[in-house]
Amino acid sequence: MTSDAYDIVARAYADTFPDLRAEEPEEIALIDQFAALAGVDALALDAGCGAGRVSSHLRGRGLRVIGVDLSSGMLAMALRDQPWLPTAVATGGEASGGLSRLFTWSAVVVGAFRRRLARLRGYCVP
Fold it and tell me: Where is the Methyltransferase domain (predicted)?
């Protein structure tokens, strides 16, 4: 899907999936493991945050979270439901450093993983 397509479905998506209840227990456990490894008060980038449901879960585990997404519509829903979440519309190439941990979730196009990972690497502290 393109960012325009995500903009169109943003409200329906956010209303249908307000949290992680639709996820498999193993997926939630993986997110929780990431949060535990990062540690309380660690800064995490939720790249492709969508409506912010993973961001919200990570915050509940004590992390500080920044949400970045291509879709301004999804970010509007994230701010509607998580008004505390700092967000930005970005392509993933505006790296500025400062993150101590990186966790990639879903929505990476097959064949683009290495390129996306290289871009996300720029957000992390060396």
Answer: 45-80
- Residues belonging to the chain: 126
DSSP 49-88: -TTSHHHHHHHHTT-EEEEEES-HHHHHHHHHH-TT--EE
Exposed, middle or buried, 75 (CB in 10 Å: 0-12/13-18/19+)?
Answer: buried
Give pLDDT tens digits for 47-72.
Answer: 889 999 999 999 999 999 999 898 99
- Domain extent listing, the chain: 3-121
The tokens for 108 are 């990476």
Q: How far apart are CA 23 and CA 54, in angstroms?
A: 11
Number of helices (H) and strands (E) in the chain: give both, helices first.
5, 3
Q: Which helix (H) or strand (E) holds 43?
A: strand 43-47
Domain spanning 3-121, CATH class = alpha beta
